[in-house]
Amino acid sequence: MHVLENPRSPRVRAVAKLTRRSARQGTGLFLLEGPQAVREALTHRPEVVVELFATPLAIERHDELRGLASDAGLEIEFTTEAVLDAMADTVTPQGVVAVARQFPVAVRDVFESSPQLVAVCEEVRDPGNLGTIIRAADAAGADAVVLTGRTVDPYNPKVVRATTGSLFHLPIALSTDLAETLEFARGAGLRVIAADVEGDDLLEARDEGLLAGPTAWLFGNEARGLQDEALGLADRVLRLPIYGRAESLNLATAASVCLYESAFARRSANSV
């Protein structure tokens, strides 16, 4: 069995460069770290995985990856731990690293598919927040996530890790124009609801039945929130009530609650 042993080889360096946005933009590739992310990619998007690296011990522990790789027409490139450490963004990639092609979808295609629940992230800059929002959107049954403005790259390794595989479960669209994105949303019959601390009480809106219909939730920057111009594009602005003494909620936490409120409202309406 051949084992890739040199952490300074050109092949290893090429993979390691994918931790940088410039390399991801130049190649259209991105990095996957850990058996869970690789498993989800091979299960749900096997066509995007182009290289798979692993230590022999990791494949023994996660033998299902062998079959998934074979089904995808991939050969596992065995490496040492030192090589994987040199490739990865994390300190401990758990013995498995892969390279995949990026697969963004067009905003127009998202809304032409008659979505019922979409998360729109405007200027979300923290990778952990974005990854958690994508994961929450997936869990709540959202149809897509749209990233607008200068939102962090969804193929940033920290974002990919924070999605825990959800990146491969639902469409992720990129847009530079928030106004155009929301026009598409309204054209598809979605109500645009912005989450903001100055908005109306979300629970009152829920009692009105506002959340049961097709909805595009709009979430803003962690520090600044949504700018006035962005808020003006929404059909309604809602806030989560704070019952304790916390000044506010973390963006990803608030987004998770909002998305789940819509999910609950939709299912309740459909069960009547």
Question: How would you describe this protein?
Answer:
The protein is an alpha/beta fold and 272 residues long. It contains 13 helices and eleven strands. The protein is elongated and about 65 Å long.
In short:
The chain is an alpha/beta fold and 272 residues long. It has 2 domains: 3-101, Ribosomal protein L30/S12 (60s Ribosomal Protein L30, Chain: A, 2-Layer Sandwich); 107-271, SPOUT methyltransferase, trefoil knot domain (Alpha/beta knot), CATH 3.40.1280. It has helices spanning 10-16, 21-27, 35-44, 56-61, 64-71, 81-87, 107-112, 127-139, 157-163, 178-187, 202-207, 228-232, 251-271; strands at residues 3-4, 29-33, 49-54, 76-79, 96-101, 117-122, 144-148, 172-175, 191-201, 215-219, 236-239.
Topology of this structure?
Elements: E1 3-4, H1 10-16, H2 21-27, E2 29-33, H3 35-44, E3 49-54, H4 56-61, H5 64-71, E4 76-79, H6 81-87, E5 96-101, H7 107-112, E6 117-122, H8 127-139, E7 144-148, H9 157-163, E8 172-175, H10 178-187, E9 191-201, H11 202-207, E10 215-219, H12 228-232, E11 236-239, H13 251-271
Parallel strand pairs: 1-4, 3-4, 6-7, 6-10, 7-8, 9-10, 9-11
Antiparallel strand pairs: 2-5, 3-5
Helical percentage: 40-55%
Strand order of the largest sheet: 8-7-6-10-9-11
The radius of gyration over CA amounts to 20 Å
State the oligomer. single chain
CATH H-level superfamily title of the largest domain: SPOUT methyltransferase, trefoil knot domain
Q: How much of the sequence is in beta strands?
A: 15-25%
* Overall strand count: 11
CATH level-two architecture of the largest domain = 3-Layer(aba) Sandwich
Mass-distribution shape: elongated
Order of helices and strands: EHHEHEHHEHEHEHEHEHEHEHEH
Query: What's the level 1 CATH class of the largest domain?
Result: Alpha Beta
- The end-to-end distance, rounded to whole angstroms, is 60 Å
Q: Which regions contain 5 or more consecutive residues with pLDDT less than 50? A: none
* pLDDT averaged over residues: 95
Q: Describe the biggest sheet? A: 6 strands, parallel
* Structural class based on helices, strands and sheet pairing: alpha/beta
Predict the CATH topology of the largest domain: Alpha/beta knot
